[in-house]
Amino acid sequence: MMDWTDRHCRTFHRALSQHTWLYTEMVTTGALLHGDVARHLDFAAAEQPVALQLGGSEPADLAQAAKLGEQWGYAEINLNCGCPSERVQRGAFGACLMAEPQLVADCVKAMRDVVSVPVTVKHRIGIDTIEHYGFVRDFVGTIAEAGCETFIVHARNAILKGLSPKENREIPPLRYEVAYELKREFPQLEILINGGIVTYDEVAAHLQHVDGVMIGREAYHQPYFLAEMDQRFYGADTPVKTRHDAELAMQEYVAKFVEQGGYMGAVTRHMLGLHRGIHGGRGWRRVLSDARRMHAARTRGAVVALFEEARSHLRPDWLEAA
């Protein structure tokens, strides 16, 4: 979710769901150990529960980065062993780490030794042409011996050469049954499933076989998908947030951000799917994606005026509908 799930995106998603776990963009150990820590790790308490996803392959560096994450208040440290991009591979981390399970185990142990929050691993079910179940079974088993208790399984292979990251999320076939088999073989572990899940019914069906579901692209491009999660899957008895509820919360957030010198478009770019499929949604998106007007909005009044203009394209009954 690099360049997607930044703190503004997470604040927006939290305006729709109070209980789903949120994950940061993948942050490399180098960015934390040699860069601006606050820029990468700062987040608002209202975003919790939120997990820090790390990219790296040096146990000592990951331990130091994980310790920073815990100090900044993250509820989980997640190691990315699933990203297939060539840029990530050049750094010797991401999906290519699946070929080195003992190294991943060493990384997990190094992090667990210095933090008290859970250390989890996100991974694929195979790499390149390696599709036999034994490969991912041994990967999970080796890392579990190092103390990892939670695995987030993107149920596709990662093709390390020849496919872009986008193609890697679409072309390798989904094989959910591999994640199901991992749960059967390792009942003591928490197994979550990821990949191509777009409906509540699909979430419910997967939960018959595994412990949790991670939603990526659907939650970003169709964010209102999150609105009923609390009621459907966490037993919440609070009313489902309307689109208007979420938008007004973000309007206030954007206004404060702009008053502090921020750029309005840095937030609204994450919101553009809120009214997707709603009559007038295209006009709403056009207003809140106009870079020239975003740059000109430097006061609370200007922010509110832009949101009100955007809403003028929507039918009130659709805006208030849950």
Automatic annotation (TrEMBL):
Enzyme Commission number(s) of this protein: 1.3.1.91
DUS-like FMN-binding domain boundaries: 1-297
InterPro entries: Aldolase_TIM, DUS-like_FMN-bd, DUS_fam, DusA, tRNA_hU_synthase_CS
Active site: C83 (proton donor)
Cofactors, names only: FMN
EC primary class: oxidoreductase
Any one GO molecular-function label of the UniProt entry: tRNA binding
Site (Interacts with tRNA): N80, K166, R169, R282, R285
Reaction catalysed by this enzyme: 5,6-dihydrouridine(20a) in tRNA + NAD(+) = uridine(20a) in tRNA + NADH + H(+); 5,6-dihydrouridine(20a) in tRNA + NADP(+) = uridine(20a) in tRNA + NADPH + H(+); 5,6-dihydrouridine(20) in tRNA + NAD(+) = uridine(20) in tRNA + NADH + H(+); 5,6-dihydrouridine(20) in tRNA + NADP(+) = uridine(20) in tRNA + NADPH + H(+)
Keywords: Flavoprotein, FMN, NADP, Nucleotide-binding, Oxidoreductase, RNA-binding, tRNA processing, tRNA-binding
Residues that bind FMN: Q53, K122, H154, N194, G195, G196, G216, R217
Described function: Catalyzes the synthesis of 5,6-dihydrouridine (D), a modified base found in the D-loop of most tRNAs, via the reduction of the C5-C6 double bond in target uridines. Specifically modifies U20 and U20a in tRNAs.
Family classification: Belongs to the dus family. Belongs to the Dus family. DusA subfamily.
Name by which UniProt lists this protein: tRNA-dihydrouridine(20/20a) synthase
